[in-house]
Amino acid sequence: MEALSLSCQQLPGVTLIQVGGQLDVTNDTQLEAFVLQARRRLSDHLVFDLGELTFMGSSGLRVVLDAYRAGAGHGGAVYLAALQPEPARLVEITGAGRHLRVCATALEALTHALAARITE
């Protein structure tokens, strides 16, 4: 199994979280703790750059949806960027894309998230 890699960058009102490797029940708590530490405010938008994530199980998607639910009542949105085929299929078959904003690239997601901050 490919190890999970996590990093983040803080922008005004937006947190970019880069996730790589494989995300499943064996390491989903790592992502959960990382998101809780990285997110400064519930109103911050989160951008998950998943370009290096080769696999995401349902437990990993739960962490992302929990981040969405935590911020939704405070104006925070969650963007998924650069989905690889397997994680994209999971998002599609579960219907999670109804709540999460899916973008082709991290740059596109950041552009939308930052623009949303300016208009709020």
Please tell me about this protein's structure:
The protein has 120 residues and is an alpha/beta fold. The chain has one domain: Transcription Regulator spoIIAA, CATH 3.30.750. Helices cover 42% and strands 30% of the residues. It contains four helices and five strands. It has helices at residues 28-38, 58-72, 85-94, 106-119; strands spanning 5-11, 14-23, 45-56, 78-81, 101-103. Helix 1 packs parallel to helix 2. 31% of the residues are buried. The mean pLDDT is 95.
List the helices and strands and how they pair.
Blueprint: E1 5-11, E2 14-23, H1 28-38, E3 45-56, H2 58-72, E4 78-81, H3 85-94, E5 101-103, H4 106-119
Brief synopsis:
InterPro entries: Anti-sigma_ant, STAS_dom, STAS_dom_sf. This protein is α/β, with parallel strands linked by helices and 120 residues long.
